[in-house]
Amino acid sequence: MIVEHAYAKLNLTLEVIRKRTDGYHDLATILQTVDLHDTLEFRDNEGIEFECSDASIADDDNLVVRSSEALRKVAGTGRGAHISLQKRIPVAAGLGGGSADAAATLRGLNRLWELGLSENELVEIATEVGSDVPFLICGGTALASGRGEKLERLPAPEHGWFVIVAPRDVGDDGSGLNKTARMFGMLTSTAHTTGSLTRKLAARMIEKGDCHPAFMFNVFQQVAPHAFPNWQKIHDGFAGLGASDIVLTGAGPSMFAVAPSKEVATAWALLTKARMGCEAFAVGLAPRIEIDPEQ
User: Fold this and answer.
1) How far is CA 86 from its chain centroid?
2) Helix 119-127 crosses helix 97-112 at what angle (to 10 degrees)?
3) Going by C-beta distance under 8 Å and a sequence separation of 6 or more, which residues neighbour residue 68?
4) 48-52/80-86 β-pairing
5) Can you tell me the distance from the alpha carbon of 160 to that of 286, in angstroms, rounded to the nearest whole number?
6) Which helix (DSSP H) or strand (DSSP E) does residue 282 occupy?
7) Cα–Cα separations (whole angstroms), residue 273 to 9, 160, 216
8) Distance of alpha carbon 188 from the chain centroid
């Protein structure tokens, strides 16, 4: 049996540069993995068989199955696997849970099937699966551009603890669009930027190791109160505990803030859960995963 952890991500910055002719958007974002994670187990099997602790995503059209089939095709193998997923990262929360599961699947099956693929080869396959999947192959800290597939490794931020608050209701405007598509649809071209905010923070992290929360930014935060029921109320309740510089992550609805210590982070998370009735997590940084083709 092979076991892999799938780590959640935060967007320390997120800018939308432009809409592309292929329907995607060019982004500039600084990504950071944290130690909130799902767990995947892989065993030999005749075909691809998937089970999940969350029945709402245990179907054949999820990123775990898609990444499995993509890897089989590239590797030219007929081997299968039984994949068991224990969910802990909230679904559709802006934390990259599905993408993290897909990345962990590529890593796990690379080991189970003894393919010996390198980091670059796994990232190339990941690009075809989803925009956040390439980064989550190894995680750590990185500046991502393009759709998210162009990665520049960065030093880890100086902050040791974050608190993530994840509202349960992602809202539904009746359009039939998924959450991320709805959020992009709510932005006008006036919200597009050049990526300078992201590059500025990346430069500070490289040169000074400085990642002050005041430089964190998410373009979707301006529409989050309109997109998600009770988002502003939860934000204000979180701020009332002492959290400052609260930032949306991904396309939401989750938000996060830097905590001064593990003890404060734990207290903020417990109080937010008790008072606001939503999920909250005190998390530390997750280290970068190194891919060993010989493993």
Assistant:
1) 17
2) 130
3) 48, 50, 81, 83, 105, 109
4) parallel
5) 10
6) strand 279-284
7) 20, 21, 24
8) 24
Asked if residue 213 has a cis previous peptide bond (ω within 30° of 0), the answer is no
Q: How confident is the model at residue 170 (pLDDT cuts 50, 70, 90)?
A: low
Considering only CA atoms, which of 5, 8, 53, 58 is closest in space to residue 33? 8
Structure tokens belonging to residue 245: 């510089």
Write the pLDDT tens digit of every residue in 260-294: 999 999 999 999 999 999 999 999 999 999 998 76
Q: Which of 38, 132, 236, 262 is catalytic?
A: 132
Q: Mapping DSSP to helix (H, G, I), strand (E, B) and coil, where does residue 177 land? A: coil
Q: At 177, is the pLDDT very low, low, confident or very high (cuts 50, 70, 90)?
A: low
Residue 67 Cα distances to 62, 275, 280, angstroms: 9, 39, 29
- Cα angle value 21/219/17 (rounded, 5°): 30
Catalytic one of 9, 38, 87, 101? 9
Task: Identify whether 233 is a catalytic site residue.
Answer: no
Query: Is 132 tagged catalytic?
Result: yes
